[in-house]
Amino acid sequence: MEKILNFLESRTKVITFWKEYMIGYKVPRELTFPYVFGILSLIMYLVQLTSGMVLVMYYKPTTQMAFDTVNFLIEKYVPFGWFFRNLHAAGANFFMAVVYMHILTGIYYNAYKRPREITWILGWLLYVLLILETVSGYVLPWGQLSYWATVVTTEMPTAFPKIGEFISLWMKGGYELGDIALGRFYSSHTVIYPVVMGVIIILHLLLVRINGISHPEGIEPYDKESGYPFFPYVLLKEAGIAMFFMAIFLTFVFFYMHPFKSPDNFEPANPLRTPPHVAPEWYLLLYYEVFRSVPNKLLGVILFGLILFLLLLMPLLDFSPKRSARKRPLFFALFVVFLISAISLTVLGTLKPTPKNAYLGMFFTFLLLLFFISLPIISLIERREKNA
Amino acid sequence: MLRTLFFIFCALFTFGVLWIKNPFKEEEKAFTIPKEYEKIIEDERYAKEGKEIFKLYCTSCHSIRYDGVYHTFAEGTEKLKLLKQMSPYGDVVLRANYESAFAKELKALKESFGRVPPDLSTIYLARGKEYLFNFILNPQKVLPGTQMPPLLAGQPEKVAKVVSYLRSVSLPPSRERRKRTIMGILFIGYAIILGLVMFWWRREYYKEKCCLPEER
Known about the structure:
By secondary structure, chain A is mainly α. In chain A, 70% of the residues lie in helices and 1% in strands. Chain B is built from ten helices and no strands. Chain B has helices at 2-20, 35-42, 47-57, 78-86, 95-101, 103-113, 123-137, 139-142, 156-170, 174-207. Chain B is elongated and about 80 Å long.
C-alpha cells in the first residue's frame, strides 16, 4: 500500500495535495450549521449528474419520441428507470433549495467581501447557470407543461423592441417550438451547462481553499492555525449531516413524488391547447411575481435582470469595513427585510393574479431593491462609525 | 437563539406554503365517485374486465399504446404485426412509428372529430379517477361541447372497470409498488445509519485525543 502511495505521490503529488487541502486546511471554530449548505449543493450537483447520465441513455430528443421515452421507456420499461427519473426530478428542487440556502448564508455572513469577491462572482455564475439548467431541463419531457412553460420563456425576450424578436427566434430555432428547439435545449441541458458548471464548481472550491472560509463572527484575517482541521473533523460532521439530508430527500423520491411531477405534464405537448395553469416552479416564483406585478412587460424583464445583476454587484455595493450580520445590526435588519420580501414574493407567486396581489408584489419588489440600494448607505454609516 | 428560531420559522413557513399552495397540486376535487365504484376502480382484479370493455367500446377512437392496445382499424392488420415485430419493446409501438404507419386512418379520425382522440396511456396520471369516471359517464356534463359520445352512459359499473384498467396501465402493479416501498425504506434506513456512523466515527477518532475539539 505504501509503495503504491509513494508511486502516486512521486508522480502526482496526491498526498501533498491531500495534506494541504484536507488536513492542513483549517476552518474557524465558530462555524455554524448553515455552512453545510455548500457541501449539500455539491452533493446535489453530483446526484443530478449521475441520475442525468442514466436518463440520457434512454431519452431521445425529438418531438415524436421525447414523451414516450420519458413516460414509457424510462418510467416503465427500463428496470429502476423510475428511480432515476424521480431522483432527477425531485433532485432539481432540492438542488435549488440548498443553493438558495447557500446564497442566503453567503449574504448573511458577508462571504462576498474581500478577498472572496471572485468566489462570489463564480457562485453567481453557478446560480445563473443553474436557472438555465432547470429551464432547459423543464422542456425535455415534452408534456403540456414543458411545452407551454418554454413558450413563455422563449417569448420573454420579445419584450425588448427590435432585437427581442430576433433573440426569441434564435432561441426557438424557428417560429414554432419544435425539434430544433428541443435539440438545442437538450444539448445545452446535458452537455454545455453541466460541463461549464463542473469547471466553475472546481474553481469555486479551490478559491474557498485558497482564501479560507468566511468567518461567522466577521473576523478577517483570522488565525487559521487555531481552527479545526477540515479532515476528519468537519468532513465527517458534514458527511453525517449530508446523510440525514439524503434520508429526507429519498423519502420524497420514494413516497412523495406528486409535487414534483405535475399531472398536466402527463399529457403530450399540444400546441393548440393551453393547460389550465401555467406557472413556473417554486424557485422561479420570485422573478415570476416581479414580472407579473409590474404593468409593463419590458420593465418586468429589466427588473428580473436587475435583481440578478445587483446580486452580482454585492461585493461593490457593500464596502463597509465590518463583516457578518452578527456584528452589523443595521445590515441584519436589512437582511430580514430582504428575506421577508423574497419569501413574500415567492408566496404571492402561488396566488391568483388579482390587482391587490399585484400592488403587494410591487411593494415587495420595491423592498427587495431597497435592500441593494441601502447597502452603500449603511456601508457609509458603518465606515464613519469605525473612523470615529 | 432568537435569530436561529426566526430563520427556521422562515424556512418552514416558505416550504410549508409551497407544499400546500403548490400550483400544480391535484385539481380541487370538483367531481366525486360513489364509494362502491371507487372500490372497483382501486381493485386491480377488475382491470382485466375493464380492458375487455375498453376494447369493445373505446378502441374505435382511442389507443393505449403502453399496454399494446391499438385502434380497431389497426388491430389485426399486417402493418401492425410488422411494427410489433420490429419494436424492441414487445407489443408496445412508439408514437412516431405508429402515427406514421397509420397516418391515413388517424387523419380520417381527425376529420370526423376535429382532433385525433388522444392515446390514453397516461391519462389516469393526468386527470385522476374522479374526472375520468364522471367524464366517461357523462362527457357533455364535464366538458360541454366535447365530441366524445356517451357510450357508457348509465352504466357506472362498466365505467368504473374501465377507469380501473386505465389506472392499472398508468400506475405500477401493487407487487411492484410494494417492492418500491421496501426499497425506499432500505435506502432511507441506510442513509440514516450511515449518518449515525459518521458521527460515531468522528467521536471515536477524537477519543484518542481526549475529546472532541468543541468539548475542550
